[in-house]
Amino acid sequence: MKKLTKEEIFNASKTTSPEEDYIKIGMSTCGIAAGAQDTYDLFVSETQRLGIKISIRKCGCIGMCYAEPLVEVHAAGIPTVTYGKVDKMATMEIIQKHLTHGLLVDDYIFDMPMKK
Amino acid sequence: MSKQTIFLLRDSNSQKDNTRDFQILFSKIARDLNVEDKIQIIRAADLGIYDKGYIVKDLTNNIIYTNVSEEDISTILTSTINENKVVENLRYTPDKCQLRIVLKNCGLIDPESIEEYLGQEGYCGMAKAICDMTPEEVITEMKKSGLRGRGGAGFPTWLKWSFARNSLDEERYVICNADEGDPGAYMDRSILEGDPHAVIEGMIIAGYAIGAKRGFFYIRAEYPLAIKRIETALQQAYDNGLLGENILGTNFCFDLEIRLGAGAFVCGEETALIESVEGKRGTPRSKPPFPADKGLWNHPTIINNVETLATVPVIINRGGDWFGSIGTEKSKGTKVFAITGKVKNSGLVEVPMGITIGDVVFGIAGGVLGGRNLMAVQTGGPSGGVIPLDKMDTKVSYEHLAEVGSIMGSGGMIVMDEDDCMVDIPRFYLRFCVEESCGKCAPCRIGGYQMLKILDRIAEGKGEEKDLEQLKRIAYGMQKASLCALGQTAPNPVMSTMKYFSDEYRQHVIDKKCRAGKCTKMVQYIIDQAVCKKCKMCVINCAVGAISGSRESGYKVDQAKCIKCGACFEVCKFKAIIRK
Question: Of A5, B158, B199, B512, which has the most beta carbons under 10 Å away?
Answer without folding.
Answer: B199
